[in-house]
Amino acid sequence: MNIEKTISDLPNTETRKLRDLLVNANKVLSKDPKHLQAAHLRDALTEELARRKVSNRTRIGPLWWEPHDPDVAEFFAYDEAQSTILVAAIFKRATHTATRKAVYSVRIGDQTLDGQFEEVAMARRAGSEAWEKRQKQV
Question: How far is CA 9 from the centre of its chain?
Fold first, then answer.
């Protein structure tokens, strides 16, 4: 595999494929931590995935929320579109079932909001409203 060609194509590669490549690079590195090409590819993949997270943020009220990834239990919000300082998080406490629907919780700073939410959109709105209310008190 030509690593430089693969890396140059990363911006045009589907996210799922990027994740698969990252898993493979990490497998190689677990067997040989000094494998330079795998390390170079892993770093490039990590950077591309981070770039996509920033560019795909959605503004809800005053906060910019990362896209919801069902494979990740927690995702974050920032007070500016390009910020790296997180101010809020949504995390999944349990798996959805027929009787347990409200599984998402919201944390602003180090304080978890009361209640749980059935949908990510509801949790985002609640988080943004709580952040806005908190900012007015400061």
Answer: 22
Spans of all domains in the chain: 3-55, 58-137
Alpha-carbon distance of 78 to 89, in angstroms, equals: 9
Write down the pTM of the prediction: 0.70
Cβ(111)–Cβ(88) under 8 Å? Answer: no
Tokens encoding 18: 């990027």
* Burial of 66 (C-beta count, 10 Å sphere; 0-12/13-18/19+): buried
Q: How far is CA 53 from CA 27, 33, 82, 105, 134, in A?
A: 23, 27, 10, 21, 26
Task: Encode pLDDT of 17-55 as tens digits.
Answer: 999 999 999 999 999 999 999 999 999 998 998 888 888
